[in-house]
Amino acid sequence: MTDASRKRRKGTLRQGLLLIFVLGCVGLGVELLLLGHFQEWRQQVPLALLVLGLILSVVRLGYKRPVVLRLFRLTMLAFVLGGFAGFWFHINGNMEFELEMNSRLTGWALASSTASGALPVLAPGALIQLGLIGLLYTYGHPGLRAGQPEMD
Question: Rounded to whole angstroms, what are the CA distances from 112 to 56, 57, 103, 119?
Fold first, then answer.
């Protein structure tokens, strides 16, 4: 395999990761909007991150500067942190509700009730997954190295 074909292959994989990221953002954003996941500020954070990620993806297509990649990478880190925060909020919300319903719950009974509560505990993992896909897109990107030719 020649060096040029290796670079083309990496570029194609990178474009595929960006496409998966964009499709995931659109799908998750539509789902959150349909669920009414915007009633308080904490629920608006994932929507804002999704919009920012989509905007940076579009900007990236037309503006091939390292600053866009760095902003994108920083936003992906925010996706991951936001997903973990959502995980925490969902668990706490479910736990508070379960303890209000039955204050004597402890141990496994509390844990299983919390995990299967009204708020989907693992749903914020989708935001984490999208952040990791975005970070993979930027991993080893030639646009982040000084003096390297720009490829996607």
Answer: 39, 39, 15, 13
